[in-house]
Amino acid sequence: LTLDIEWRYSPYEADLPQPTDSYRFYSPYISNMQRLENGNTLINEGSNGRIFEVTRDHEIVWEYISPFWGKTLNNNMVYRAYRIPYGWIPQLAQPQETPIAAIDVRTLRQPGAAVVFAPHFYGMDAGGAAIMQQAVQRGSSIYSPQSRPAIDAWVRAGRERFGDVVLINRQGGVKPVVKSLRAGRSLYLLPDMDLGRQESIFVPFFGVPTATAPALPRLARLGQARVVPAVTRMTPHGYEVEVHPAWPGYPSDDVTADTALMNQRLEAWIRAMPEQYYWVHKRFKTRPAGQPSVY
User: Fold this and answer.
1) CA-CA distances (angstroms) from residue 191 to 226, 256, 291, 293?
2) CA 142, 146, 149: angle at the middle one, nearest 5?
3) CA nearest 171: which of 142, 203, 211?
4) What is the sign of the dihedral through the CA atoms of 203, 205, 206 and 209?
5) I need a surface site. Which of 166, 220, 237, 256 has the fewest CB within 10 A?
6) Quick one: angle between helices 175-182 and 215-222, nearest 10?
7) What distances in angstroms separate CA 288 from CA 194, 200, 208, 280, one per listed residue?
8) 193-206, pLDDT tens digit by residue?
């Protein structure tokens, strides 16, 4: 026993911005850790329901956020967590472990808010949950209330379940969204939509003039936020979320050019997996004056 610190994992080793994000790795009670046979360390951040394995070089191998919230106390705390070797349960066949790529969260964890450009791929909800759990310090999303209160409460509970998320009522207009961004709360935005002639501008999309909401550049400029694309792909084993670098120099002073650039980059992602894009939104529904409907 030397009383020397041989190894540690703290907000500094987690590479969290100091001091603003120190709280993202903190639990005032319960919790535990376990040194594993492979030299890694299992850490249970109990009060936040977060369990993860980290290497000696402070690289997170995998991360799990408990989705089980109490009915009496609204929390997902985990008292203790231990990794049990497969050999402890010899009556079961050893499962095959499938490696998955971790989300690169460095862009999203930089100081200041980000508008996360999340295109309408089928995995968008899973991608949003993963990003709110693992990446942003505080998040938000624009929400359309449901007409039936019971369904509305059920949907809201599901969308607020992962991470520190605030749902902003779409009917409240732009001001609450801008205020949230300027307060440092990132926005998970799905702007690739045709919202009709009054709320859209016509820019090319697969070579066709397409009514497209200019929400991405406008909200990023008003909210003084960077734009970070995040594309979610469904796979036979689950979902893959790819967080791209922030777009430099975006937005510019030309909202039409910025919206056209959004569509141009979106096209490349769609061409890679056209079967996973949400075509039921009828992106070509609103036509320029004098042009017939394509549907």
Assistant:
1) 15, 14, 24, 22
2) 125
3) 142
4) negative
5) 237
6) 50
7) 12, 11, 10, 20
8) 999 999 999 999 99
